[in-house]
Every structure is written in C-alpha cells, then in structure tokens.
Amino acid sequence: MKKYKHIQQQAYEANMELPKLNLVIFTFGNVSAADRELGVFAIKPSGIPYNELTPDKMVIVDFEGVTVKGKLRPSSDTKTHAVLYKHWTNISGIVHTHSTYATAWAQAQRDIPIFGTTHADHNTVDIPCAPPMNDEMIRGNYEYETGFQIMNCLSERGLSYEEVEMILIGNHAPFTWGKTPEKAVYNSAVLESIAHMALLTEQINLQAPRLKDALIKKEEIEIDIIKLDDEISIEKEIALLKIDVQGYELEVLKGATDSLKRTSNSYPCTSIFSKAISFSMEISSSNLIMSISISSF
pTM for the whole thing? Predict the structure, then answer.
C-alpha cells in the first residue's frame, strides 16, 4: 500500500545508518519510523542482513504490536517499540542497538556519569540504566515488558522522555528515541560516543569528578524556537523579506518557506553566510515565487 511507503523509506534509511555509524554488526539492532495519524510504524524485519534490506521489506505494525503489512517477521524487539509508541505520543522514531560501549555500561548495570560538557550538551543528568527486569516480568512477554521497564525507570527518577531520549537496560543494551527516526539514530550515536568517553575518563582517572553543577546549569538554558511562518499571518501581504542569519541557516529557511513563497513585488533579500546551504528560487513573471529549493550539502 502506497500510504505506508513514506515510513518504510524512513525506516530503511535510518536502519542503513546504523552500520555506517558502527553501531551494529551482522543483524543486530533495529530502527522504527512511526506515522501517528495512521497509528502504525515501520520496522526492520528480523534476521535480515543490512545489505539485503530494501524499503519494501520494512514491516508495518500497529501500536498494539500486530503486523499490518509485510510477509517477513518484524524485529524481535517490535513489542518494545509498540509499547513506547502507544504511551509516548511525541516520538516518531526508536532505535535499539547493541553498540559496544553503551552495552558495556548496560551489562555493568551502571548509569553513565555526567563527566563533561559533551555529555551535558545532550543530557544534563546521568544516562540512566534501568535495573534488570525482575523474574516475573522475564517469565512473561520479555520484549513487551521491556517497554514498561524503560517507562518505569524514567518515571521513578522523575525524568521526561522528551528531555532524556536515551536509556540503558541493565544486562541488555541501549534504546534511544526522538521526534523523528533521524533524531533517534543521532541520539544512538551520541550515546555510544558518551559511553566511550566516560569509560576512558574512568580509566585515566578512577576518581574523576562529575561535571560541576554550575556548568550543568549553563547547559540547561532553554531557548524558545519560533518559526517565522507561525509569526506572520497568512493573510498579510509581504513586500520584502530579508533573512540575515549566521548559523542554523537551513533550519531558519525551512521555518520561513511559506512566508518566502508569499513575498510579492520584490525579491527576498537573503544573506546566508554558510557554504553548506544551497538556496534557489523560481520567480514568475509577476515576481511571485513559484517554488523554493533549500538543501544542504
């Protein structure tokens, strides 16, 4: 069905990033991509090598863990993904790997201490390690219960899944999530890097101190992000729009796409200082913008 193609493509592309980032070997690991409106997610099939994956092989599953489309068996971790999607409404991507360093901390049943600002840039708390599952849960539906193991750990520590997007499962391995599959993969790579640095830190200095609270609080400063398209009324005519930014140019332009399209009687004056952005516009004979192409390279 074509209505699932977009999440199958997203799941495929995200899964293919895992071996590139050295987060998986053989058939280990999986990424899923959810469509909230359809109430389903696409996930890697079980036991299929990464070099044999295609978008069409991504299995479609609903938030109860029931296969909706696909001839292949979905990942063995599918029910964990389903539980998290069902209860956490603001995520659309989940990653599970057995990456070396993050898994080592999980097997040691240890939180990853916040030693430096690299860690604090992404989390202002220790990366939590959920305690090993109790025997009753293990004897039940293990993958299903893993979802609750994750949620219970965050709840008991007073942590929000929207602020802490990664966790270790004691005796098991890491899970990460995000608003998109791409962000979930990013978080997985960040977690592995932080786990590696923390291990080296303790090897160099067994008494290494935690990051100072003053530096942690510095990283906690929140900045409101407002899209230009949300600030300018759609009924308002725009004679001239000048965007002058340095840093995050692509994100700024994406947040002003509709406004740029409505700019009339004048060419937008756009100052961009990054060479990593390609920005092009098609102008009609009446000086109206017909299309805008924004890309990074």
Answer: 0.75
